[in-house]
Amino acid sequence: MPGIIKVPDGCHCFTSETTSTSLRSSDAEYAWNAGKNQGLVLKCQKFTVAVAAAVVVVIVALITVTISLAVLSTKPYLPCLPIESAACPDSWIGYRRKCFYVSKEERNWSLSLNTCSSLNASLAVFDTQKELDFWVEIFSPLHYWFGLSREISQVWKWFDGTEFKNQFAVRGEGFCAYVDGKGASSTICSMEKRFLCSRPESCSKPR
Question: Which Gene3D superfamilies match (predicted)?
């Protein structure tokens, strides 16, 4: 029908042309038609506003999702979160975010290092005096190899070649280090002793 704008749900927005042609001669009928047309116009206006608001909400939501996905895709890898208890294999000991394996068998220093490697670990690394003291108290009076060694006239180094920072004293004139009931000591590397392996604990039990 000319002069009628169709919108969803049967809403018809009347133009001025339609309004003028729909008028009747009587004043009562004219007033009734005018009120009806005004009501339809208001209804259409409310419907249009509602549709516009819904479109804005959808656009904002899509923008938010797009930004979130972009941030997640570029977020750098985060280190393990602090954990309350060690996430270590059975029979290993968790301490200060590390897992330690205490051997029952004896090996020389090199074979001890190889055995730890086969367990996806290394001969133990002690970062502080406090960490060393923890094992001194446990091991007394037994001896356990850990990850320090040196060459003739060279400084102490960890198993991976990192230079030892003298966090604690190492007694003796040997070339391979072990921990006993007194602290860190050294002797010839061919001697057989028990050994202590270590590796970082996993992130499987976040706080």
Answer: Mannose-Binding Protein A, subunit A
Residue 134 within a domain = yes
Q: What is the pLDDT of residue 173?
A: 94
Condensed to tens digits (0 to 9), the pLDDT of residues 17-39 reads 444 444 344 555 545 455 555 55
Q: Which of 26, 51, 67 is the last residue of a domain?
A: 67
Give the domain range for residue 123.
93-200
Q: What is the 3 state secondary structure string of the chain?
A: CCCEEECHHHCEEECHHHHHHCCCCCHHHHHHHHHHHHHHHHHHHHHHHHHHHHHHHHHHHHHHHHHHHHHHHHCCCCCCCCCCCCCCCCCCEEECCEEEEECCCCECHHHHHHHHHHCCCEECCCCCHHHHHHHHHHHCCCCEEEEEECCCCCCCEECCCCECCCCCCEECCCCEEEECCCCEEEECCCCCEEEEEEEECCCCCCC
Q: Tell me the one-letter amino acid at 19.
A: T
Q: What is the pLDDT of residue 50?
A: 66
40-86 per-position pLDDT tens digit: 445 556 556 666 666 666 665 665 645 444 434 333 333 454 444 44
